[in-house]
Design brief:
CATH topology of the largest domain: Nucleotidyltransferase, domain 5
Number of helices: 9
CATH architecture of the largest domain: 2-Layer Sandwich
Radius of gyration: 22 Å
Number of strands: 7
Length: 287
């Protein structure tokens, strides 16, 4: 059942419950498999079974769902108890004003590393309800208001009398940056910074262990850490000729931090220099 794997994953890393999860693989029964992991019977099973199924069925390690948008995310490596540097760089806000979930993350960039310190993950609330929660955070006083952070470009639109950007300015005095960012650039940057294919050989993006991977009974994320296991690519099926796009749900916090990372570091780069747009022109020379 999903809740079992959710707990196993969450308890692999530091967590607010102080819990731990363990696996007892088949080869730990040395009475039946005297050579343990290297027992011929175990090696034979490994040779005839796909790696993920082998580890789940015989190693006691649940396999990740297929089609994840961010397969690099791992509780053991991307989640830990973070220490806030009060004398370090200012805290920045990462905002995604989703209709089903309004996500605001408090982040601090320490060199090339990004720490997600806290969040307001509000389901079914509007910005006028969310901003007071953000301002009540212990990290609010460390936000530089004239350069408060980033928001989805949709936050600059005017579906009503005021845009989200204007409301943040009016209510909280916070100025949020916005610009159009290709979805593929956001995903590419997140995957790069969650993984270890960089000069540091370790993740560049971390989440505080107070966050959870809770989800509803219907499978919707209730907190930030649930999103990486729920944000997926759809089954293409008969839509083979349509552009490949991930499902647009259970992704508000991930998109929020993605916008900030692209604005701060560029697309999948370690440099802190902002990415500059390149205009390409195409033409065909006739005979």
């Amino acid at each position: 059942m999903p809740w079992f794997q959710d707990l196993w994953d969450r308890w692999q890393a530091d967590n607010h419950m102080g819990a731990r999860s363990f696996s007892m693989p088949t080869w730990s029964n040395t009475d039946k498999y005297p050579l343990g992991r290297e027992d011929p019977a175990i090696l034979a099973l490994e040779a005839e079974t796909p790696a993920d199924i082998f580890m789940e069925r015989y190693g006691g390690v649940p396999s990740k769902p297929a089609g994840l948008v961010l397969p690099e995310f791992d509780m053991k490596t991307n989640v830990k108890k973070l220490e806030f540097d009060k004398d370090g760089p200012p805290v920045r806000l990462c905002v995604d004003p989703g209709t089903t979930c309004y996500a605001v993350l408090f982040v601090q960039h320490i060199g090339m590393f990004t720490h997600v310190l806290d969040r307001v993950y509000a389901k079914g609330k509007i910005v006028q309800e969310v901003i007071p929660e953000v301002m009540a955070s212990e990290y609010w006083k460390y936000v530089v208001l004239d350069k408060a952070g980033t928001i989805d470009q949709a936050g600059s639109q005017h579906p009503g009398s005021y845009s989200q950007v204007e409301l943040w300015r009016m209510i909280a005095g916070a100025e949020l940056q916005f610009r159009y960012i290709f979805e593929e650039d956001t995903i590419r940057t997140l995957r790069y910074r969650l993984g270890s294919t960089n000069s540091q050989r370790k993740p560049l993006l971390y989440f505080d262990s107070r966050m959870t991977n809770a989800r509803t009974a219907s499978g919707e994320a209730l907190d930030v850490l649930a999103e990486p296991a729920l944000w997926r690519w759809p089954d293409r099926g008969f839509r083979q000729n349509e552009p490949r796009r991930p499902t647009d749900k259970n992704n508000h916090a991930m998109k929020a931090i993605g916008y900030e990372l692209v604005n701060q570091f560029g697309v999948a780069l370690e440099s802190s220099k902002p990415r500059t747009a390149v205009r390409r022109s195409y033409w065909i020379r006739g005979k």
